[in-house]
UniProtKB/TrEMBL annotation:
The chain crosses the membrane at residues 20-40, 46-68, 77-96, 108-131, 143-165, 198-218. The keyword Protease does not apply. InterPro entries: DUF1361. Keywords: Membrane, Transmembrane, Transmembrane helix. It comes from Hymenobacter guriensis. This is DUF1361 domain-containing protein.
Amino acid sequence: MSMSVAAFSAPQLRQRLNLVLVLGASLALSVVLIAFRVFLTHKITLVFLLWNLFLALIPFGLSTLLGLAHGRLKARVLLPVGAVWLLFFPNAPYILTDLFHLEPRAGVPFWYDLALILSCAWNGLMLAYASLTDMQTLVMRRLGWWAGWGFAAVALLLNSFGTYLGRYLRFNSWDIVTNPLTLFYDILNRLVHPTAHLSTWGVTLLFGAFLLLGYATVRLMGRVGEAEPAPVG
């Protein structure tokens, strides 16, 4: 019995190319906004967003590679690459929380910084949704519709928990290797004593619900018109 999952078909490759082009243009806009801000102010106040955008690209790159792989190769790398994907996945929507850095600053109009941060946040969110769509499709093909949506919901909840760990406890994805004991202790402490860490679960559940509803909306919007009959004549 074959354990492979078909790689991207020709139409899917065209769709992937179009998606990459649109995301590339959107990312380029963010980079230009950041560069122009540095030119105006001679300060690197928001340049850290470039690093956050790079981290947001990692899960999208991993899911794209899985989509391009096929046959026995995909079967062998699906679990390890999927684990790495899940580890880096929170870096994409994490950029939404960079809105915390929005405040009036001398030398740049407030609306400019708002547009800049929103642009980066949008890119992070779209990269997250595009990447999750890839992974959900892989799960659906193997285990069915319900398993696919269950995977998406769990991934987004874990994502929200990871966003909390990153924003409030200042952990990074690589701390699972460089600082595993502290990371494990802080996670276990919140699991064992949930009432002592209500903000943890508030952020996780609220942010998770927001991301899940947004993801479902984007997926449904992408299918609007697909079932409409072709015009006659």
